[in-house]
Amino acid sequence: MFFSFHRVGTIVLPLIAFITFAKSALGAPGDLDTGGFGAGTGKTHTAIGPAYDRAAGIALLPDGRIVAAGTCHNGTDYDFCLARYLPTGALDTSFNGTGTILTTIGAQNDVATAIALQADGKVVVSGYCENSGRVNFCAARYLATGAIDSSFSGTGKVITQVGAVYGLATALALQPDGRIVVVGVCYDGGNTDFCLARYLPSGTLDTSFNGNGKLVSPIGPSDDSAQSVALQADGKIVVAGYCISGGAKFCVARYQMDGGLDTAFNSTGKTLTSFGASDDTAYSVATQHDGKIVVAGECRNLGSADFCLARYRPNGTLDTDFNGSGKVRAAVGANDDVATALALQPDGKIAAAGLCANGGNYDFCLARYLANGAPDISFGNAGVVITPIGTSQDHGRAVTLQPDGKIVVAGSCDVGSRTDFCLARYQGGPFEARNCTMDIDGDNQVLATTDSLIHTRIALGISGSAVLSGITFAPHASRTTWPAIRDYLVSQCGMSIVP
User: Fold this and answer.
1) Burial level of 305, CB count in 10 A (0-12/13-18/19+)?
2) Which residue of 196, 306, 411, 426 has the fewest CB atoms within a 10 Å radius of its CB?
3) Same domain, 351 and 484
């Protein structure tokens, strides 16, 4: 039994304990990074198993190395697999001696769908695993060396029954306190539903979440499938996917820290959004620093699919500042266009990656939008880039942003008779930081006892209330709390800092 979706996961980026100022990139935004990645090509592919390897998630280390996770066939069945790359795109042989690893989790097929990087450098991978015909949530944690971390559930691996019949984990997020949130789709014999599990850093279920560490949550009137998860700054959990209600629709649910639906979100904790008369399927979700929620996926009309995005206000209503309706539908390639992943830039721009039909094949594709939903015409060809990677079918599945503005897309590529992990890195251009000065607290002056002290503490990796300890602000200062200062530095100055 092997289940496959257009989108099999999402990536939540790790907390990065350093500061990077945006720099101008060489080449035009949307160009492949031929100067620094993939031996002058801007792309790379990696064979891990003997025939079939598919990357589903990607994470960026603070030193610029890249970790991709997915599913590889070992000659008999499917296993979790990972590859770690140097910033140049070459395999990092300090990871498991070869740069790659295959890991058996269950007795049969093991399908990795998501990856996240802990602050201590450990790597968490989640997905679903088959044992005696039954499919359950599963996860594994790796040390920075590539070895399995035996402190995680005693073996480095955990398998959890969530649904009554089966549970397929599709996405993963790490809380700042180290707890692990995994979401997916579960089947109870009637309909499929959103389902969630939360683990302590030790790998055991967190019983403060719904009393037993797991939750099955009906959203729409029929089948529901959770495809992506993001965490808000206040700890609430946002889950997006698709729900069948007279056809497939985007659906989003928001949960409290204890697992209960957050009724401050659309009064019910959930919302369904239709783009047209046919099926609309959400695959990725991200939260903006201002609390707004962006969702990306595909919308079908007469058999052809387009990129679709929706943006919601924190209260769950569509944000009409986004394209006038809260929704964007855009053709990218010649036929089917599926947005499988998205990333939010510090300047408010939105990068959506996926797979687009280009003649007889699918290729990597990447589109970038302004904060108001309009295409970013400075990027690629009127906001769009379509890139052949292998010799035929290329499926982009995950995307991440580097601190220098470059964009990395990972997925799978057909190369002759086999399918490999593949990555492409694109120039992003500067983050176009605006209104950024050293006046961090907004009192219209730059002082060593306030602004410079705050900056120094953050540069040393300090975060939260400790950044402001002992500082006296001017009465007219406009940014006097950690969230306000953090959001200013991220959104206005293009920095990447510990939340």
Assistant:
1) buried
2) 306
3) no
